[in-house]
């Protein structure tokens, strides 16, 4: 009597993790414009689980995803609901969303939120942000801080997280940052080591709310 086992094509996915602490990892970038640059990566979300999977009615290998900046209309495309997969994010009224959107937009390249929209469903399925800290050290240098990176639970395994992080770090480098920093959970370290990153230092945090 033959034995058969049914296998799922995709491993069960863990929910996004809200991190209170993490490790800092970095990789040296060599740029003709900037020279040797320490790239420090601190990420709140591991975004590459399991095999490539289908999202909607098309497979990841057949569908191309583009990273773009956040638009005001993205609130109606599930942007807030996507952030709720990452951490505590209460409902936001249309007015509050527009007010914050305009405030951040006024900062120009100093605060960028990027998204990936699924063209078939019209939903935002990945996002992340970077803000630029201006310092006196390092010849009045700049540091990019990457935050709030999350990929929709139904769209993981498509390398969308790598696209988001790549977009944000490229932006930080383009505006003259000497490094980019962000957090990642210790269990996600392997993902970044495979990307060429190394552990560096630790993160400390103090919450007021």
UniProtKB/TrEMBL annotation:
UniProt keyword terms in alphabetical order: Acyltransferase, Endoplasmic reticulum, Membrane, Transferase
Membrane topology, record value: Peripheral membrane protein
Pathway assigned to this chain's UniProt record: Nucleotide-sugar biosynthesis; UDP-N-acetyl-alpha-D-glucosamine biosynthesis; N-acetyl-alpha-D-glucosamine 1-phosphate from alpha-D-glucosamine 6-phosphate (route I): step 1/2
Listed PROSITE patterns: GNAT
Example GO biological process: N-acetylglucosamine metabolic process
Annotated localization: Endoplasmic reticulum membrane
Enzyme Commission identifier(s): 2.3.1.4
GO molecular-function term, one example from the UniProt record: glucosamine 6-phosphate N-acetyltransferase activity
GO cellular component terms given for this protein: endoplasmic reticulum membrane
Similarity annotation: Belongs to the acetyltransferase family. GNA1 subfamily.
Record protein name field: Glucosamine 6-phosphate N-acetyltransferase
């Amino acid at each position: 009597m033959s034995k058969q086992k049914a296998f799922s094509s995709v491993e069960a996915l863990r929910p996004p993790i809200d991190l209170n602490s993490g490790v800092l990892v970095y990789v040296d970038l060599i740029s003709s414009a900037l020279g040797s640059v320490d790239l420090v990566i601190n990420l709140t979300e591991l975004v590459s689980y399991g095999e490539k999977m289908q999202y909607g009615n098309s497979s990841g290998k057949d569908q191309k995803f583009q990273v773009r900046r956040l638009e005001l209309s993205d609130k109606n495309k599930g942007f807030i609901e996507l952030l709720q997969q990452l951490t505590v994010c209460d409902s936001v009224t249309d007015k509050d969303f527009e007010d914050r959107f305009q405030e951040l937009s006024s900062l120009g390249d100093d605060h960028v939120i990027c998204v990936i929209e699924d063209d078939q469903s019209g939903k935002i399925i990945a996002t992340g942000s970077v803000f630029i800290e201006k310092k006196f050290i390092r010849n009045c240098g700049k540091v990019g801080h990457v935050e709030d990176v999350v990929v929709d639970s139904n769209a993981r395994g498509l390398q969308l997280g790598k696209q988001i992080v790549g977009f944000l770090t490229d932006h930080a480098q383009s505006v003259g940052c000497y490094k980019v920093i962000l957090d990642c959970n210790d269990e996600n370290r392997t993902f970044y080591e495979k990307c060429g990153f190394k552990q560096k230092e630790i993160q400390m945090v103090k919450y007021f709310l």
